[in-house]
Specification:
The protein is of the alpha+beta class. It has one domain: FomD barrel-like fold. It contains two helices and ten strands; from the N terminus they run E-E-E-E-E-E-E-E-E-E-H-H. Strand 2 and strand 3 form a beta hairpin. The longest helix is centred in the last third of the chain and has 25 residues. The relative contact order is 0.17.
Length: 170
């Protein structure tokens, strides 16, 4: 697999880069693989998800959608959760996938529950933030989320299964 840079431009204009592997990139969409080197946890009012070292992300990006999604799997292939970023200006090239983060995120637990994260970090009300487009994007995402999750789970169980990705887990 070819290396590529994932660049997240935070709302504060800070930049966070990750080295990833390209699984697929075509037609204004990309799928990247990233091995988790440093464990982390995400806590919400609905619970906590821990992503251990050695697990992996299959990330999905679209230039024409106001979100991207990280689909986390354990080293043995079990579903750990998913994380949607609300974004704008996603750009996909042969060298980089970049996007501008719009603060709000949606965390999906293995049992299907979800939590909206970082509302307290918005510089204004959600109705006014980015002229209301983030509120619209969040509503659209929540409406479409079950379908997106089902599509990603089926694809991850097939084309991007643990067995298919195991050479990259070493």
């Amino acid at each position: 697999m070819k290396d590529i840079l994932e660049r997240k431009i935070k709302y504060t204009l800070d930049v966070v880069d990750y080295r990833c592997k390209v699984l697929e990139s075509q037609d204004r969409r990309a799928k990247l693989f990233h091995l988790i080197e440093t464990p982390f946890s995400i806590v919400s009012k609905k619970g906590e998800i821990t992503i251990p070292k050695g697990s992996y992300t299959v990330a999905y990006y679209w230039e024409d959608r106001p979100y991207n999604v990280y689909f986390w799997r354990s080293r043995d292939g079990g579903f750990l959760g998913a994380y949607f970023n609300l974004v704008k200006n996603t750009k996909i090239t042969s060298e980089m996938v970049s996007f501008e983060d719009l603060i709000l995120d949606v965390l999906v637990y293995p049992d299907g529950r979800y939590a909206i994260l970082d509302e307290d970090e918005l510089p204004t009300s959600i109705e006014l933030f980015e002229n209301g487009t983030v509120k619209e994007s969040l509503h659209a995402l929540i409406t479409e989320m079950d379908g997106i999750m089902e599509e990603v789970k089926q694809e991850a169980a097939g084309q991007y299964s643990h067995d298919a990705l195991s050479p990259y887990l070493a």
